[in-house]
Amino acid sequence: MLATDSYPTRLTDHPMMLQREDPVVYGPAGGRLDRDQVESFDRNGYLFLPGLLGAGEVQSLLEELRRLQARPDNENRPEVVIEPESREIRSVFRIHRDGGVYEALSRDARFVDPVRQLLDSDVYVHQSRINYKPGFRGKEFYWHSDFETWHAEDGMPRMRCISCSILLTENNDINGALMVVPGSHRTFVSCVGATPPDHYRASLRRQEYGVPDDESLTRLINAHGYAVPKGPAGSVLFFDCNLLHGSGSNISPFPRSNVFFVYNSVENRLVQPFAAPNPRPEFLAER
Predict the structure, then answer these.
(1) Strands of the sheet with 141-144, listed across from one edge
(2) What tens digit of pLDDT does each residue of 20-38 get?
(3) DSSP classification of residue 116
(4) Where are the beta strands (DSSP E) in the chain?
(5) Which residues pair with 81 in a beta bridge?
(6) Of the candidates 90, 44, 99, 86, which has an alpha carbon nearest to the alpha carbon of residue 240?
(7) CA 159, CA 19: separation in Å to the nearest integer?
(8) What is the DSSP letter of 151?
(9) Helix, strand, or coil here: 160?
């Protein structure tokens, strides 16, 4: 652990709830997002914009999603995560380096400009992925703060990073839509348990280290409630790196496929991990 670590985690045998030391919004209102939207993001830790992409754009992205899903070498590609029980694809990482439609999408001003505005900084893609969550077999993503993992295992120093989730299918009450805890981004939940070597190999399928304890989760949900940002394909969710979020299994016939781009400030570049033996591979964390 570095002496300047403001967010210690996975270092003791008891969890802690620490007050956030970093701003949520670094830049002024006025830009692609109006004042109400900026204040909502600052207060809740997320902003949902329905129907930002048109139907034609969504269709093109779905076609590319299916092409990636059908690649015959998927089981041998490290950036492809397979569900252990069903052998379905769970996630595909580093899609912003594909040289095609997803790389172009990662640079789209509709996503990049709001993040630059909120972070008051130029940004780069820290991580990108598709989460497939197919009907009947798509498994849950347990409650977590992304920053806890990125801090512990990637060496992200500060909370100056925003995720952008693009809905390629409708997200609704029965297909495992993302759930968030509004306001939880102002509390850092320090987790227990030392990070095992190469933890990412298991955690991408089912995370056991770096997840909040039951008592901390209960306190935060009791204090803030929870929300389910849901809407049609083409909608976009921006959320703070420390916002607690998760999603249940998809037991409906309807797939829930989302694209994620994680934008980190160029002033927040990664250092050595704060609570892991070695940095994760670059397909998970651009260095």
Answers:
(1) 141-144, 245-247, 178-180
(2) 999 999 987 778 999 999 9
(3) H
(4) 16-19, 46-49, 80-82, 89-93, 123-131, 141-144, 161-167, 178-180, 187-190, 236-240, 245-247, 258-265
(5) 91
(6) 44
(7) 12
(8) I
(9) coil
Q: What's the token pair of residue 182?
A: 């509004």
- Name the packing angle between helices 109-119 and 35-44 (round to 10°): 70
What is the chain's length? 287
Token digits of residue 211 = 């997840």
Q: CA-to-CA distance for 158 and 5, rounded, in angstroms?
A: 9
Distances (CA, A) of 148 to 128, 171, 217, 244: 17, 26, 14, 10
Sole residue written with tokens 């925003």: 162
Q: Are 96 and 103 in contact (CB under 8 A)?
A: yes
Query: Whose structure tokens read 């830009």?
Result: 31
Q: Could you tell me the two tokens for 88? A: 């379905």
Nearest to 231 by CA among 261, 260, 262, 258: 258
Quote the CA–CA distance of 68 and 276 in Å, as a whole number.
Answer: 31
Closest CA to 240 of 216, 219, 264: 264
Q: Quote the Cα angle for 111-242-82, to 5°.
A: 75
Percent of residues in the chain assigned helix, strand, coil, to nearest 5? 25, 20, 50
Residue type at position 188: F
Helix H segments across the chain?
Answer: 35-44, 55-69, 101-106, 109-119, 146-149, 200-203, 214-224
- 0.90 cut: is pTM over it? yes
Counting beta carbons within 10 angstroms of the beta carbon of residue 19, is it exposed (0 to 12), middle (13 to 18) or buried (19 or more)?
Answer: exposed
Cα 116 to Cα 124: distance, rounded to the nearest angstrom: 10
Cross-strand partners of 11: none
pLDDT in tens, 160-212: 999 999 999 999 989 999 999 999 999 999 999 889 887 777 666 666 778 89
